[in-house]
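Troubleshooting log. The previous structure file for this entry was overwritten by mistake, so regenerating from the original sequence record. Sequence copied from the archived sheet and checked twice against the printout by T.R.
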Amino acid sequence: MAIMLRLFFIFLLISLSLHSDALLGQSVTIQEDPEVESMLTRYVQANKEKPGIEGWRIQILSTSDRARMEKARADFRAYFPGLSVDWVHVKPNYKLRAGAYLTKLDCNQDLDRIKRKFPSAIATKVRGLNPREIIGW
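Regenerated output below.
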């Protein structure tokens, strides 16, 4: 993944430098190695297959008791009306999760505040976040 990211940034830098040279009346021709092109194609295809992005949520509660989860959700909404809260059912448990963060550092800022009311809250890494959900974007 790190190699793909580096290749992407190299490609981006080359593209930007070509654009600035074109403004000055200069031109550069790049012959891309077929292996690089193949890697970029695989990278794009792999990311198209993944819905959303990887990030962090705050898990408020994990319980097999749905009524307890719904009570905790109502309490959370009363204490923190500005934060989104939702639940997922991972048999046999209901997991109550709040927020959507790109980094654990961002997540921990709200986690410290939430722990005052919900001491068992933890930061959890999740896949499939919608970029529009991410707090601070």
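The longest strand covers residues 53-63. Archived copy saved in two places this time.
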